[in-house]
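Folds abound. A case:
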Amino acid sequence: MNLKMMLFSGIMTALIGLMLGLAVSEISQRVHRRNIVIIGGGVLGFVLGFTYQGIKQEKDERQKEYEDTK
């Protein structure tokens, strides 16, 4: 698996998660939960992006192996 690609995907989705967390915290206007929502969005984005890229790479590898057996 390409770890660099997985990290890049995780970082990019973490940035998107941070932006969504910032938007949600602005809409809710709860000052005491602002940091938790922003950091939570970033962490959730990183985990989702990293995991999705890993699954995608694994699927591509299996597809290649399947085509080689034909």
About this structure: The CA atoms of residues 17 and 41 lie 4 Å apart. Residues 3-65 form one domain. The two ends are 23 Å apart (CA to CA). The chain has two helices and no strands.
